[in-house]
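Bit of a strange request maybe. I'm writing a small parser for C-alpha cell strings and I need a real example to test against, not something I typed by hand. Could someone generate the C-alpha cells for this chain?
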Amino acid sequence: MYVPLDPKYLPEFQYQSKGFVQDMFLGGAEKSKLKRKLQSVLTKYDQFKYPYFVNYLHIARGSIFLSDDNKPEAVHSDSNLKLFQLVLTRLGFTELMEFNQLTLKLVYSTELNFDYSNFITQIKNHIKSTIDSTLFSWISEVGSRYRKELPLFVYYLWDSQTFVNDIKFIPTGNLPLVRTKTMQKIQAYSEKVYLDILVTRFRKTLENFDPQQYLNIYKIDSMDGYQFESFLVQLFTYLGYDVEETKKAGDQGADLFVSKFGTKTVIQAKNYKDNVGNAAIQQALSAKAFYDCNEAMVVTNSYFTHSAIELANKTSVKLVDRSELEKYIDEYNQLIIEAMNESENDSPNPVKQTNRI
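Reply from user aminoacidic:
Good idea to test on real output. This should exercise your parser:
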C-alpha cells in the first residue's frame, strides 16, 4: 500500500494515461474531475483531522499501524476502522465510501506526519557538514532502526533543501521523488555505514572487554548480603535510576531506594539459597509505608514461595526472582559494553562517498 506523507499525492487522484488518443480528447476532463474530487477530500480531511483523525490515532494506536512486514491489513481492527468511517461519513465525509481504503490511507498519512515531526526533532541533532558524517552520526544513535526511517531521512533532505547537490531529486509535477536506483544506492551506502559502525564497536569490545566486569547469576550467588546490595546499587544506577542506600541498622525493611520519573521505589534485597517467603513481602510493605514510597520491590537470586507470590500480587509488591534477575544482569552487561565503547574516542571514519547519489 502506497501512503504519501502529504495526502494530496494519493494515487487515487493522480491521472493515469489511457493512451495518446484518449489522453488528447478525454484527459483534460478526467484530470479536472480528479482535481475537484481531490480538493473536496483535502478540504474535508483538514476539517476532520482535528479532533477526529488525531484522536482516533491515539485511541487505536498499537492496533492499526504497519507491522514489521508492512502489511497493515494484518494488524488493524476492521471493526474500529469501520466505526470510524461511519462517524465521518455521517458528518459529511462521504468521499470515504467512494474510494477503497481511503480512510485507512488518511489514517496512515496522519500517523506518518506524527512520525515525521518527531523525526525532524531527532535528525536536526545529527546534521553535520557532509552527508557522510550526518549519516554516520544518525545511524550510530538509532542503529538498525535507520532502515525503517531512511525514507523520512531522504524526504527531510529534500524538504529542508539539505545536501541537495548530493542526491538527485527528480521532480515529477509537484511530487519530489528519487529514482528507484538512487534509493537503492542510498540504502546500500547506509548499510555500509551501519556495518562499519558494528564492526568497529565489536572490535573495541574484543580489545577492551574486561571479564572481571562481566556478571552472571553464579557470581551473584557467591556474594554475601552486603555485596548483593552493592551490586543492586550499581545495577539500578546503570539502568538510569537515582539510587539511595539506607543505613544498615534500623532500616525498617529497606535496603535501597530507586527513583525514576517521579516514582520512588523501596527495594528489599534477599540473597538467599532457599525460596523467599512472606516475611520479605511484609518487610517491603512496611518500608513502603514508613518511607512514603510509591512502590515496593523484592529482589532475590532465588525464587519466591507460592504464598509470597500470592501476598505480593494482593498488595502490588513487585517481585524480581532468579529468572527475572538474569534478564537484569544481561541488560547490565550490555550497558557495561556500551559504556566502554562510548568511552573510546577513536570513532571510525565514515565511508568515503566519491560519487553523487
